User: What shape does this take?
Amino acid sequence: MSAAPDLITLNHRRDIRNRWLLSLPALLIILLAATGPLLIVLIYSFLTPGDYGDVKWLFSTDAWVNVLFQRDIFDDTLSLADAHISIFLRSINLSVMTTIATVVFGFPTAWFIATRPARTRELWLFLITIPFWTNILIRTFAMLEVIRNEGLVNMLLIKAGIINAPIQMLFTDGAVLAGMVYVYLPMMVLPVYASLEKLDFRLVEAAYDLYATPFRVLTKVILPIVKPGVVAGSILVFIPSLGAYVSPSILGGGKNLMIGNLIGLQFGQGRNWPLGSALSISLMIVVMIALLAYVRYAGKGANAHG
Amino acid sequence: MADRSGNFDVRHQGGFTLIAAFTFFALYLPIAVLVVFAFNGGDSISDWQGLSLHWFYEAARDDRVIDAAIRSFVLAVSAGGIATLTATLAAIATTRTAPYRGLSAKYAFINLPLMVPEIVTGVALLIFFSRVKMWTGYSGLGYLIAAHAAFCIPFAYLPIRARLESMDDSLERAAADLYATPFRAFRYVTLPLLWPGVLAGFMLAFVISLDDVVITEFVKSGGQDTLPTYMLGQIRRGTTPAMNAISTIFLLFSVLAVTIMFLVDGKRAKAQ
Amino acid sequence: MAPNNAVEIWRVTKIYGSGDGAVTAVNDVTLNIGTNEFFTLLGPSGCGKTSLLRLIAGFEYPASGDIILDGETITATPPYKRPINTVFQSYALFPHMTVAENIGFGLKMLDLPKAEIEPRVAEMLRLVRMEALASRPVSKLSGGQQQRVALARALAPCPKVLLLDEPLSALDYKLRKEMQVELKRLQAETGVTFIFVTHDQEEALTMSDRIAVMSGGKLLQVGGPREIYNHPANRFVASFIGEANFLDVTVTGETGEGLSLALASGETFTGPASDELSAGAKVTAMIRPEHVRLQPASGEAGGLTGTIENIAYIGTDTYYHVVISQGQALSVRLQNRPEDGFTLETGDRVSLSLPVSALRYLKD
Assistant: This one.
C-alpha cells in the first residue's frame, strides 16, 4: 500500500499550522492590548489602593465590599452605598430607555428605507451611515449645542413667546438619554434594516389576503419575522449605553453620573484603582449576562428556523 | 389607504414615514447647527453675527490643535495599517479552510474587543501599560498605536472576511491547476480580488481610530492628546466656536472616508 | 501496457470526514484511461465522479491507492506540479483579467518567456474562435464564450490530460449541443486525453470513446457506449442509461431457441440461452422499451398479452404502458410512422412479443 494516509494527515497538520501562524499577529495584538489586561483588572480588584493612585500589593476584599456598601468612618458599620447603587440603577434604567427609544424611532426609519425603490435606498442608507461613522464626541457636542440654555431649542421657544426663561435641559438625565439615543440610533437602524431587507413582501400580501388589518400585519407577521434584527440592534445599543462615558460626562454634568464615569473617577480624582477595577468587573458581568441572554435567544431562533 | 388612483400598498404602515422623516431631521439638525455656527463671525455659539472664517483661522493658529490633529492622523494611519495587515492574514486563516478545532474560538476572540465596554478596556490598558511603562521606561506613542490597532482589528476583519467568503474558491483552485504555487496563486489571483475589501477594511479602521475618545483618554501619557481627547477637555471647560470649526473639519474627513468606502463597496456590488 | 495508458487509477479510496460522519466518496476504484481517449465518468450526483476528478487533478489526496500519470506516480503531487488541467463547472475564469490574460495565465506560471506565451495564446484564441475578443474582460462574455475561454485556458499549457467537470451543465440546450460537437473537434485537433464528468447519459453516449458508470463511490461498469447500452452489467446501469423494463422470471426449461421463462402470473416467453442458468433459477430479464413489439390482440394463442393502461405521445414516438398481469407491466416505445395501420386506445387488449436477441439477464 502507499503512504497516502500519512500524506493526508501531514497536509492537514501543515495547513493548520500555517493558519495559526497567519492569525497569530492579530490574536497577539488583541490579547496584549485589549482582552488580556482584563485579567489584570480582576487581580487589581482584590488589592489595596495606593496613596497616589495605583495599588499596594496587599490582598483585600474592600474594593468589592465598597461596590455595594459603605463603611461608616465612626462606628465601622456597613450600610448600602446609596451613591453607587443609584448610579448602577440609573445606568441600567437609562440604557433600557435608550434601547426602547431607538426601537421606537429606529424601526419605522429602517422600514422607510427598506421600502424605498432600490436606487434611492442606497442614498437613505448612506444618510444613516454618515452619523454612524461620525465621531461620537462631535455628535454629543452637537447635541449639547442644541439643548443648552442658550441653544437653538430654548432660543426658538423664547422667540416664539412660548417661554420667557430658558428651560434647563442640559445636565439632566433627560439630556443624557437624548444624547445616547441620538448617538446610538444608527446601531439600531442598520441591523433592523438588514432583516427587513430580507423580508418577503409576499408574506405581507398573504396576510392582507387572509383578512389581517395593517396593525395586525405589523404585529403578527412582520415583527415576529424581523425580531432577530431588533434583538441584535438592542444588544448593539444596550451594551455601549451601559458603559457610556462621553454622553453622561458632557450632557450629564457632574451630578448625573453613569457607571462609566464612576469607574473613570476612581482612576482620576478618586485614586481608588481597586474600587475602579471591581466596578469594571461588575460592569463586565452585567454586559456578559445581557450577551448570554442574547446568545441563548439567537441560538434558539436559529434552531426554530432550522 | 387604497385610493382609486393607486393600488393597495402592502408596504404602507401608518405614521412610519412621519417618524422616519423626524428621525432623519433630528439626526442632521444638531450637526447642521454645529457646522453653521463654525462660520459665525462673533464669539457667540448661539447668536448669529455674520459669516466668517475667523474660527477656522483661530483653530489653525492653535499649536495644541495642530499637534493633536497630526497625532490623531499618525495614530489612525499606523494603527489602521497594522490592524488591516493583521486582519487580512487572520481573515485568510479563518476562511476557505476545512473547519478545524479552535476556528470558531478564533473567530470569537477576534471579535471580543467589540463586546467589552470601552471604559473597561480603557482602564484595563491604563493599569497594564502603567506597569509596562515602569518596567521599560518607554512612554511613546506605541501604547496608543497598540491599543488602537487592537480595537480596530475586528472592524478591519469584517469586510475582508466578507469579501473572501463571497469569492468563488474555485478561482484559487483554477490557479493551482494552472501551475501557480500557493504563493503565486495568492499574489496573482486572491490579492487582486481581495483588494477592495482590504481598502474598505483600512478605511473602517482609520475612521474608528480617528473617532476614539474613551480608550485614548485613559491610555495616553501626558502631552499625548489626540484631537478627540483635546476636544473633550475643551468642551468640559466650556466652548468657543473654535470647537465648531475643528468639528466641521473633522466631520469633513469622516464623510470623505465613508464616501470612499461606500463607493468601493458599491463597485463590488455591481461587479457581482 | 503502461505507455498506452495516460492515467492509471489503482485501488483509490477517498473518505470525507471521520468517525460516524465519514462518507466514502470513492470506494476502491481501479481504472485505466488510454492516451488520446475521450473518457467519461458518468453517474448521478453524489456518485463520486467529481471526487475522482478532483483526486486526478490533485485538489484532494486519496486515503489509499495510487494515481499514475504516464507511468509516473503522482498521488502526492500538488496540483500545480501536475501536467493536468481542468475546465471547471463554474469556469472559474479570473474576473480581474482579460480573455488573453486568462488564457496565458498557466504559461506565465510556468515561467515561459513572453515571446512564447503570446503566439501560444493567439493559437488558442484561434482554436476556440475567440480572436476578436482577446482584450475583453471575461465578465463581459456570454456563457458560451466563457466556456470557450475556460477550454482555451486549460489547453494552452498543453496538458497531458484535460479534466472537464460537467462543463456544459450551465448552458442551454441548443448551445450545449453545439459545444458537444466543439469539444469533440478540439479533442481530435489537440490529441489530448479528455476525462469528462457528466450526469447526462445522452451526453455521455454521444461523446465518449469509453464510459465509466459510477454509483455510491463504486465503479459499476466500464465500456464503449454501445456495450454499456446493450450489455449493462447490472440493474443500476440498465436503468440509469436509457430506459429499461425489468421482468422477474423463473427458468422453466430449455427450448431450441434458448431458455423458456415464466412470469409469476404463469405467462411464458423465450429468452436467450445461458450457461449460468438452469431450470428453476430465478432471474431478472431486461428489455428496452423500443425493442418490445406490440400488436392489437388477435386472439391467437401463445405469447404475452396485456391491456394498455396509459398512452404518452412524445412526437417522434409513442409510449404505451401495458399491464400484463397483477404487478407486472411493460413500457413500450413505438416510432410514429404515417403508414401504421392501427390506432390503439387506452383499455385495448394487445399482444406483445419480446425478441430473444433483445433480452438480457441481469444481476441486481
Observations:
- The radius of gyration of chain C is 25 Å.
- Helices of chain C lie at 49-57, 99-109, 114-127, 143-155, 173-190, 201-207, 225-230, 235-240.
